[in-house]
Amino acid sequence: MKFQLIDVLIIITYLISTIIIGFWYRKKAKENNQSYIMGGKSLPWYKLGLSDASDMFDISGTMWMVSLCFVYGMKSIWIPWLWPVFNQVFLMMYLSKWLRRSNATTGAEWLSTRFGLKGRGVGASHKVVVAFALLSCLGFLAYGFIGLGKFVEIFIPWEFVKGYVPFEVSPHYVPHFYGIIFTLFAMFYSILGGMHGIVFGDMIKYAIMTVVCISIAVIAMINLYGQHLNVPKGWDSPFFGTHLELNWTGIIDDVNKKIESDGYSLFSIFFMMMLFKGVFASLAGPPPNYDMQKILSTKSPKEASKMSGFVSIVLLPIRYSLIVGLTVLGILYYDQMNLKGLDGAIDYERILPASINSFVPVGLFGLVLTGLLGAFMGTFSGTLNAAQAYIVNDVYLKYINPEASNKKVISMNYLSGVLVVIVGITLGFFARDVNSVLQWIVSALYGGYIAANVLKWHWWRFNSNGFFWGMFTGIVAALVFTRFFSGVEFLYYFPLLFLLSLAGSVIGTYMAPPTDENTLKSFYKTVRPWGFWKPVHEMVLKDDPSFEANKNFGRDMFNVLLGIIAQLCLTLLPMYLILMMKMPLMITIAILAVIVFILKRTWWNKLED
Predict the structure, then answer these.
(1) Do 578 and 220 meet the contact criterion of CB atoms below 8 Å apart?
(2) Closest Cα partner for 563 from 95, 97, 93, 238?
(3) pTM reported for the whole predicted model
(4) I need a labelling partner for 158 at 20 to 30 A (CA). Which of 86, 147, 208, 462 fits?
(5) What is the pLDDT of residues 400-447, one digit of tens each?
(6) Burial 369-381 (b: 16+ CB within 10 A, else e)
(7) 113, pLDDT greater than 70
(8) What is the separation of C-alpha 134 from the centre of its chain, rounded to a whole number of angstroms?
(9) In the chain, what is the straight-line distance between the N-terminal and C-terminal CA atoms, in Å?
(10) Is the peptide bond prior to 84 cis by the omega test (within 30 degrees of 0)?
C-alpha cells in the first residue's frame, strides 16, 4: 500500500474541511429557498464559472477521457463531442443570457415564462421536464458513484481494510462500499451549505486540482524527456481521414480490439453524425442539471454569458494537462502496470489510477487523491443541488404545499437531498460500469430531449402540448432504441430518433391552440430570441413601435464557430506542451490569440442584459 502518514493526513484534512464548510454556510443557506438553491443570485460570475468547471471535472469522466487519449491519441479530442462539449460555446455566445432573462429558479419553472400557467399541455409539459431532470440527475449520481468506487479500489485494496470492517463484502461490491463512504461526506456539506457551500467547496477543490494537474504534467514531461513514445502513426495528430487508421499491432495488440469494439474506425462518418447531433443538442440549450442551475444563479444575463465562457478557459487546459500527463505515463510504462479487470481483459479505465499509483511521490500522492475525491464531491454536490431544486420548487411548492414556511422549505431540501442520495446509490448498484451509465445518459435520455427544446427557443407556434409530446415521444423512442442499439450504433440511428421526436413536437403543437398572446409577447420582449417569431414581433410592434427584433443570428453563429475553434485550441495546448511539439504549439497559440482578439470585439464588447 503506497499511503504514507502525510498522504492520509492530507485526505483527512480535506474531508474535515468539507464538514466545516457545511456548518459554516448552514445559516446563510437557511435564509430562504433562493439562498439555499441559488446562492441568492448574489455570487459573481467567475466564482460560479469556476464552480461549474469544477462540477464538470469528475473522476468518472476523467478516467474515460484518459482511456480515450491512450487509445486514440490527439484524435480523442473529438470524441467528447458526444456530450457535446461545445454546447458551452453556444451558451457563452447567446443562450445563457436568453435563459437568465427569464429570472426563473429551475428549468421547469422557466416553462411558465414560455408557455404560461394555463392551457392544454402546460401541466403535462411541466411534469415531463421534472421527470427528465430527476432521471438525469440520478443517472449522473450513479455514474459518479461507480467511477469513484473503481478509483478508490485501486489505491485502497480491500485486504488492507477488511480487518477493520465488521462484515463481509463481496469483491464485486468493494467499489460500491468505497463509493458509499465518500458519498456520505459529499452529501453532508452539499445538503447543509446549499449553493454557497457548494461554490466555496468547488473553489478549494479547483485550487487543489490545478496543483495536481500541473504536477502530473511536469512528472510526465520529465519521464518523457529523451524517450520516444511507442505509438502508431497518426496518434500525435488531431486530423483524420475517412478511416481512423490507427494500428497498434506489434505495440499493444489488445488496443486494436478496443478500437473495433468502440466502432470508431469509420471516423469521418462517426464525426459527421456526432456533429449533427451535437449542433442540435447545443441549440436546445442546457439540460436541467447543475449547469442550468449555475446559469440561473448568476446576477444578470451579461454575467451568465461571461460565466459560460469562463468555464472552458479554466477547465480544458488544466484537465487535459492531467489527461495527457497520465496517458504519457501509461504508454511509457504500460508493461509495469496491471490494467486487467476481474474478467482478465484490459480495463482502460484503470490507466488513470494505475499511473498515479506508480509514479506520483509521497505527499503529492495524497494531494492527487484529495483533488480527485474533491472532483467527485464537486460533481456530486452540483447534481444533488439541481435535483433538490426540482423536488422542492417544482413538486413540493407547486403541488403539495405552496404556502410552506421557510423552515418547512429548508427541511424539505434536507429530506429531498437524503432521498436523492439513497436512490442514486441504489441505481449505482445496478450499473455495469462507468461507460454503461454514460451511454444511457448521453444516448437514451438526452437523445429524446433535443427536438422539443430546440423548437421552444426558435418557433413561436410551438406550445406546451407540443413540448410534452415531443419530449415524451423522444424519450420513449430513445429508451426503445437503447434496447437494440448501444454505443456508436445508437449515434447512427439518432437522425431517426430526432425525426420521431420532431414529429411528436409538431403534431402535438397543432393538436392544441397557440400559446396565449400575452405570454408570447412577454417572452419575446423579455428573452429577445431570434428565429421564427414574425407574428409575435408584429403583435409587439402594435404595442411598442420602437421595439427592435434580435438580428444577431449571423454574428452569434460566427462567434460560435470561432468559439469552437478556440475551445479545440485550449484542449490541444497542454497536449502539444507535454509532448514537446514546439511548432504545433506555437501555431495553436497564434490561432488562439487571433480568435481572442476578434471575440473581444464581436462578443465581449457587445454583451448586454
Answers:
(1) yes
(2) 93
(3) 0.91
(4) 208
(5) 999 999 989 999 999 999 998 888 888 777 765 555 555 556 555 666
(6) bbbbbbbbbbbbb
(7) yes
(8) 15
(9) 55
(10) yes
